[in-house]
Write the structure tokens for this entry.
Amino acid sequence: MQGEDPFTADPRDARTWISVYNQLIGFKHRLLKQVHDELERMPSHLRPVVREDLTIIQEQLDRYETRLEFWYARHVTLEGVMVDDETRVVTHRGATAKLTRREFQLFEAFLADPEHYVLPRQLVVRAWGDTALTDEELRTYIGSLRRKLAEIQLGRIINRRGRGYILLFGPQPNRP
């Protein structure tokens, strides 16, 4: 895409492209669903043309998903983070943290849309797909993940009323 620099050394660029591709993918999914829903109601002579368009849209969606995966990996690299999916060990600039299964799933949910607020219910669904978890349980896992990320100096998780939670990367703010 125009302006995209895969060799950037700035993690903010990677976060921007993650956001761009997430939005494009969301749009393409909605468009595909809408056209699929309307396809059977269309006159039969239009269906072959629309099916060709659906193929083109699906190919674009596939390319966007490939680029999104690239930017996820690039972002993690630029932030100096190594993530071992098997052992759930996160390494940041030589320091490591072993995450529980739930903490790891929560961390991955934050990485899926870095530096964007996520409402608590959306975060629960994104991380665990389990809407039965309470807000109190979410807060418990957030607190535990916060401590472990602070130990390896990998960003901070902030909560803002009405906006949700966000994982911010970069230097920790000075505290008096």
